């Protein structure tokens, strides 16, 4: 936030303290305010001002004077915006909540470094995460279990086997920007995905210790992130997975990303990493897992959130809420991470193309590339993953026969023989699960 | 709802407004979708042309600095004050969705997120503004 903005904020709040706001006086001198009529003030008080005021413990009569998109100082840091300085080359889709994706050519590393990991915030960053303060952090395991657990991070580290794994996290809405008609939400193109290395304990080991009952059907995950309205009573996001998925040995309760404490933007001090499902099941700021005897109904489990129509629909169809079912496995997918799109290559000479491939149901079986708009395909070499659900490196050499414009299309195939489509698959109201082939431009010179 | 464009189109064809439901129900044809202009193509990035087309691209009102970059048109002010209590205008400006989706999102914002429901007239102004400037409909 700029000094100028700071000043405006302080002036606005000072005006409240002096009581000027209640008299309807305008004039922090910052210029954008129009005359204050009583109706407008009442309106502000009942909407925006009340939300900010709830956090600040006071009303903000000059809220209208805040420059576009700006929020009071007391709340500003909560978006995590200040930490964007540590990120490199990300494209910011929104500042509050903070959402940013990574251009494909910055995802070339086998292990995605912090500075290139996309950001998907549903709410605001908790204060203890901003302060890197994990003291007293407890994880509760309760619900349909024989021995409910209260575990400190030290308990997790000492009582269970520590595991380190590279695993893909991908937002369920990655690729939303390509649906037509448009689907609501952040318009992710290809970059809401990454594959850092996570360290923690197996979710299955912890659940086994708690003694999951036969009645268990679904997990419910909770964290301490703050709702965008600042209302401490409101749940930001609470999702879950079928118990069978939770009991597979892949999922981790993680405290480290790439060998360091999980950064504030990615869930400090504890988060779930449940690979293969939409990223939203991998709860950040994790403090409770409740085992349920029915599908979870927490925030963003219901309605259209992370749900797909139960049957195929024509693009733009209004699907009744009752016909929407929870999205589970993510589809097979790949990216061309080298070279950067629009690169020039030498005509008639072999050029290396490479990237990553991954699938929600485990490993990828084959990788192909085309330089003629999908008319012919050549097989790429595909390396095995270091562990299940890590993305796999693929490489190909292409030779462009004459000078001009080419596109490289990349197509991964999963273990069931299912491949990526050339165009958007299954339109759905919120734009999930788009695994269309990634394309880059190459110019032969 | 690209209100003005829609009316102009219908008037130009000499058709009654009663045709709208027929258009909406017309036989789906994926090839017609493909023939529709997409987003502006970029020679540097073939993914660009595959993005959701913006029916109003380039011809809309200028962004209002005062109201978080929302298009400067009737309804911008009400929309701004109604919506920025929780999030910035960025999430609004990214949308190109159907009228029905806007109605649903309004409901969701009120019921699930705790948005204050204004009087009916203000609601009408805001929804009309959203459906006009952030629409996927022609």
From TrEMBL, chain A:
This is DMSO/TMAO reductase YedYZ, molybdopterin-dependent catalytic subunit. Residues 1-11 have a biased composition (Basic and acidic residues). PANTHER family: SULFITE OXIDASE, MITOCHONDRIAL, SULFITE REDUCTASE. GO terms for biological process: sulfur compound metabolic process. Residues 327-442 form the Moybdenum cofactor oxidoreductase dimerisation domain. It holds the Pfam family Mo-co_dimer. It comes from Paracoccus isoporae. The keyword Oxidoreductase applies.
From TrEMBL, chain B:
Residues 28-74 are annotated as: Disordered. One of its GO terms (molecular function) is heme binding. InterPro entries: Cyt_c-like_dom_sf. This is Cytochrome c. It comes from Paracoccus isoporae.
């Amino acid at each position: 936030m700029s000094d100028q903005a700071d000043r405006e904020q302080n002036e606005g709040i000072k005006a409240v303290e002096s009581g000027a706001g209640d008299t309807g006086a305008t004039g922090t001198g910052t210029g954008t305010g129009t005359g204050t009529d009583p109706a407008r003030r009442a309106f502000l008080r009942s909407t925006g001002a009340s939300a900010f005021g709830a956090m600040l413990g006071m009303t903000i009569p000059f809220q209208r004077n805040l420059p576009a998109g700006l929020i009071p100082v007391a709340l500003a840091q909560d978006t995590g915006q200040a930490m964007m300085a540590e990120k490199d080359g990300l494209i910011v889709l929104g500042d509050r909540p903070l959402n940013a994706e990574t251009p494909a050519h910055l995802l070339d590393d086998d292990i995605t470094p912090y500075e290139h990991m996309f950001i998907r915030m549903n709410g605001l960053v908790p204060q203890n995460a901003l302060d890197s303060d994990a003291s007293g952090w407890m994880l509760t395991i309760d619900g349909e279990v024989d021995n409910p657990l209260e575990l400190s991070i030290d308990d997790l580290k000492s009582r269970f086997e520590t595991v380190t794994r590279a695993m893909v996290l991908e937002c369920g809405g990655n690729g939303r920007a390509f649906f037509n008609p448009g689907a609501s939400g952040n318009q992710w193109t290809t970059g809401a995905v990454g594959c850092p290395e996570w360290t923690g304990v197996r979710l299955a080991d912890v659940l086994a210790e708690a003694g999951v009952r036969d009645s268990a059907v679904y997990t419910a995950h909770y964290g301490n992130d703050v709702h965008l309205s600042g209302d401490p009573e409101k749940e930001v996001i609470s999702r879950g997975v079928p118990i069978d998925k939770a009991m597979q040995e892949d999922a981790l309760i993680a405290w480290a990303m790439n060998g360091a404490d999980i950064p504030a933007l990615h869930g400090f001090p504890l988060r779930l990493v449940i690979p293969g499902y939409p990223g939203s099941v991998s709860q950040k700021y994790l403090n409770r897992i409740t085992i349920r005897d029915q599908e979870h109904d927490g925030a963003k489990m219901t309605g259209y959130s992370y749900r797909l129509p139960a049957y195929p629909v024509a693009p733009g169809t209004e699907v009744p809420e009752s016909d929407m079912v929870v999205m589970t496995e993510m589809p097979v997918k790949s990216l061309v991470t080298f070279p950067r799109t629009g690169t020039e290559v030498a005509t008639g000479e072999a050029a290396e193309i490479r990237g990553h491939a991954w699938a929600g149901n485990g490993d990828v079986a084959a990788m192909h590339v085309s330089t003629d708009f999908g008319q012919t395909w050549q097989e790429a070499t595909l390396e095995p993953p270091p562990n299940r659900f890590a993305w796999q490196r693929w490489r190909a050499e292409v030779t462009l026969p004459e000078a001009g414009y080419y596109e490289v299309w990349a197509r991964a195939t999963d273990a069931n023989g299912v491949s990526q489509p050339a165009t958007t698959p299954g339109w759905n109201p919120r734009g999930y699960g788009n695994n269309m082939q990634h394309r880059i431009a190459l110019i032969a010179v | 709802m690209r209100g003005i464009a829609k009316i102009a189109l219908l008037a130009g064809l000499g058709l009654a407004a009663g045709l709208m439901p027929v258009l909406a129900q017309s036989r789906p044809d994926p090839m017609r979708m493909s023939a529709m202009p997409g987003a502006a193509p970029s020679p540097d990035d073939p993914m660009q042309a595959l993005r959701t087309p913006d029916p109003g691209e380039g011809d809309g009102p200028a962004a209002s600095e005062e109201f978080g970059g929302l298009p400067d048109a009737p309804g911008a002010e009400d929309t701004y004050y109604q919506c920025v209590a929780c999030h910035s205008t960025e999430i609004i400006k990214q949308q190109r969705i159907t009228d029905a989706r806007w109605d649903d999102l309004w409901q969701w914002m009120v019921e699930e997120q705790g948005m204050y429901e204004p009087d009916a007239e203000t609601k009408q102004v805001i929804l009309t503004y959203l459906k006009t400037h952030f629409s996927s409909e022609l």
